[in-house]
Amino acid sequence: MYGLVSPTLESMRVKASYVDDFSGAAVLDSIVEPSLEEPYQALIVKWMEIDIPFASINLVKNRDYVYIDATGFIKWRNGERLAYHLMHSVNFPKTPDLPNRIRGNMSAMAFWRQVGSNTMELFGTAVMDPGGDMIKRIAVPNMVGVFFCTLKYAYCGQMKKLAFMLDKKYAESKLHGAPNKKNICVTCSTPITSRRLGDFGKSDHTCKLCFGYVCHACKIVRKLSFVDPDLLLSQRKVTFCTACISEVTSMSSVDVARAQMLASGRIYAGHMHSGMQSSISSDSVDTRSMISDYLVDAGAF
Hints:
two-stranded antiparallel sheet; 30% helix; FYVE-type domain-containing protein; Rab4/Rab5_effector; START-like_dom_sf
């Protein structure tokens, strides 16, 4: 869920860099925002654009969607806790069709439940109208494949954990300085002698979390995505050691999500966004009822 939830534009861009689920996006409004108590509970109105092959040469037009994106947890009638993700097209007077795009419609629902320490079961259903029969063979399989790609969401969550911890360690090193480590590989204890010492060498061949040296055979490189204050996305290859990779990726995603909210200052006293209270009440947008209806109609579990 940590890799899936994206209530802000910057989090959507980071997710897209790992999952590759859209080419353009915007957050139009936030109805329910994550809180410290429910860091994965969100109901956001979004817009996204999906690139269609041959659109660049004007043979076809890209498809875009205005939709509500809902995530969270719900209890099934047997008491089991399920994670859900709902994407459902909506229309508003202030979201007219855009030039050179065709507005599509979709309704997709997915549920996850954990059946083992590293095993998840996925149940999902989706209905899509990309706006034209000719394009269905291209757009629908691609969209459904991305929507139900649990492994990509899991990978995205792991990379987001690493990026968050990297920012945290960088801030700490600015205050206290990076620790001096012995000139041996922290993984295999091989002496590091055939390298230039000093800041430049240390920057290229140390784990960026523990600052320990890693040899060429033991270093693990991951490409992480970052969004700057101007919402520009950048990707950097970062070196880690095995121990730090294992420790960070096994951290509780809920704890990391809460820590990230505290660090960024995005703390909300309640779920309902004040800007939407006057026009949308909790009764008029009952996502839990919508989720239950999906379960009953599908006869799930």
